[in-house]
Amino acid sequence: MRILITGGAGFIGSAVIRHCLRTTPHEVINVDKLTYAANLDNLREVLPDTRYRFEQADICDPRAIERVFVEHDPDAVMHLAAETHVDRSIDVPASFITTNIIGTYTLLEASRAHLERLSPERRQRFRFHHISTDEVFGSLEPDEYFAETSPYAPRSPYSASKASSDMLVRAWNHTFGLPVVLSNCSNNYGPYQFPEKLVPVVILAGLEQKPIPIYGGGANIRDWLFVDDHAQALLTILERGRTGESYNIGGKNEASNIELVRLLCRLMDELVPGGVPHESLITFVADRPGHDLRYAIDPAKMEHEFGWSPNVTMEEGMRRTVVWYLENRAWWESIRIRGFSGSRMGLSVNSGVRA
Question: What does pTM read for this prediction?
C-alpha cells in the first residue's frame, strides 16, 4: 500500500513510520505541519529509504491537502496529526479545536473526494484510520475498564476535541460511506517523546538532579503502552481491521503516577549512579484542573480478532526509554535550543488550582 500518514514527525507518528518501513513493503507519505512538537530528527533512519516521502503541509489547509492526495494517490490514510498535551489544552484550547476538529474534517473531505476518483477495486481496499485516545471515555472507577462500547465522557479541552473528531469520522462512515477504522489507545511512552509529557519530564529532571514534579498526591492511574507496541497494533488495524469498527489498544500496565515515577527513579539510580538518590528529588505540586483519576483499557477485541497483545512490559519499556534518553542527549538538547523551556502549563483556570 501507499499510506498517507499525518503527524508523522511526531512521537507516535514517527514510530509508526519507522515500524512500517522496517517490517512491511508499504510506501509512506509523511504529512506534517512541523509544529513545536514535531521533529524530523525522529525519522533520520528512514531518510535513505526510497519508499519514504515528506510533505510539509497543514491538515487544516484544504488546498494543500487536496494537492497531496492528487500527487501521491494514497491507498490508505493513517490520521495521527493532533494537538495532544492536556495541560496545553487548558491554556490554549483554540489550537486543539482547530487542529483536532477542523483538521480532521478537512482530511475526511479530502479522503471522500479521493475515494470517488479511485477505481472500484482500489475503492474496496481504501481505508481511513483515525487514531484517538482513551481520554474520550472520561474517568474510571476502580475495577472498571474502557471497552469499545464505553460511552464518551470527555472532561478536558483535549479529550473533548478528540471525541469530536471521533464522532466526525463515524459520521463520514455512516452518512457518506467512507471506509474508516478507529482506534483509541492508552498512555504511550518510549524514545523520541517530546519532553512535555510525564515520562521524559521525570527522566530529564532526574538526569539533571532537578526537582521531579508530581501533580497532587500522584494517585492518578494510567495504563502505560510502549510506543513500538502501539505502532505494531496500528498497522495491524489498518491492514486487517473491519470497516466501521473501533479498536481499543492498551498496555495492560496500570500504575499510579507516583508508582511510575518511583520506578523511573530506581532505574536512574542504577543507570546513572552518583548525586542524590533520585527519589529524593520528587516534589508534589498543585494538581492539574479537572485531572481524571484513572484510565484503563480492555484490549480483548484486539486479542480476539488479531492475536495482538503488548510485547513490552512496563519495567522493560521504562528501562529502554531511560537508556534511550541517556544515549541521545543531543536529541533533547536540540529541542531546548529551539526554544522549548519546559515550563509548566495548564494552571490558568480562574486564576486558581486545586491542591
Answer: 0.95
